[in-house]
Design brief:
This protein is mainly alpha-helical and about 70 residues long. It has helices spanning about 20-30, 45-60. The model has no long low-confidence stretch (mean pLDDT about 85).
């Protein structure tokens, strides 16, 4: 068998699964009352998207300001 030191991990490498991220977010909410909001999932209009963004900025500050 030829390869590199990373060859053994090749089977684990795959693209992220959006459905898996939503499932994990749902489990966090169910078990720990942690709410995860994916901005692209806010589809009820520009106002709702602005609310989500405003809440995020209030809780965590502006993006990239660290």
């Amino acid at each position: 068998m030829s390869g590199t030191s990373l060859t053994r991990f090749a089977g684990m490498m795959r693209d992220p699964d959006p459905a898996g991220a939503r499932k994990a977010a749902r489990e966090l909410f169910d078990k720990h009352e942690i709410l995860v909001v994916f901005p692209d999932d806010v589809r009820n209009g520009k106002i709702d998207r602005m609310w989500v963004d405003a809440i995020g900025r209030r809780l965590y500050g502006n993006r990239g300001a660290r």
